[in-house]
Amino acid sequence: MSESAVRFATREEILRITLDRPSRKNALTPESVREIIEHLEGVAKEDSARAVLAAGVVVPADGVVVLFADGDVDQGPLHLPFKLSAAGEGVYLSDPDLKLIDAVEFGPADADTSYARLPDGTGSWHWCVPGTPGQLNGDSC
């Protein structure tokens, strides 16, 4: 595309995408779709946090490991360099090649709760009150 037919503007955390193609009645072309995707991927990276587990951190077979999303890596290798919002967001677990292993998106969370797959690691997601860090949940928390 010699001149971009797609314009991006962000105002008050809202991204506006404008197509400028009057002769084509704002039709999407493969080029404009690619441009939109590239821009959205860039925006997503700006607001994302990524952590690589320290060497030696291992989840034992049929076991658990507690990671702290508290933004305080000075406390040790189990502390991640970001915080999770109590308002809700997403957590994505991937392998070293960035292949998605598991993911969860959660809504507003109360203090002292956890979000767990029941039964352990295989079923659907459930809120656990109180939270059960470091414990297997079995069929219930």
Description:
- By secondary structure, this protein is an alpha+beta fold.
- The chain has a domain at 6-46.
- The chain contains one helix and six strands, in the order ββαββββ.
- Strands 1-2 form a two-stranded antiparallel ribbon.
- Strand 1 (6-11) and strand 2 form a beta hairpin.
Topology (SSEs and partners):
Elements: E1 6-11, E2 14-19, H1 30-46, E3 89-94, E4 100-106, E5 114-118, E6 124-128
Antiparallel strand pairs: 1-2, 3-4, 5-6
Radius of gyration, in angstroms, nearest whole number: 21 Å
- Please, what is the oligomeric state? single chain
Q: Indicate the mean pLDDT.
A: 77
Major β-sheet strand ordering: 1-2
What is the overall shape?
elongated
Largest sheet: 2 strands, antiparallel
Order of helices and strands: EEHEEEE
Given the helix and strand composition, which structural class is it? alpha+beta
Distance between the termini: 55 Å
Uncertain runs are: none
* Helical segment count: 1
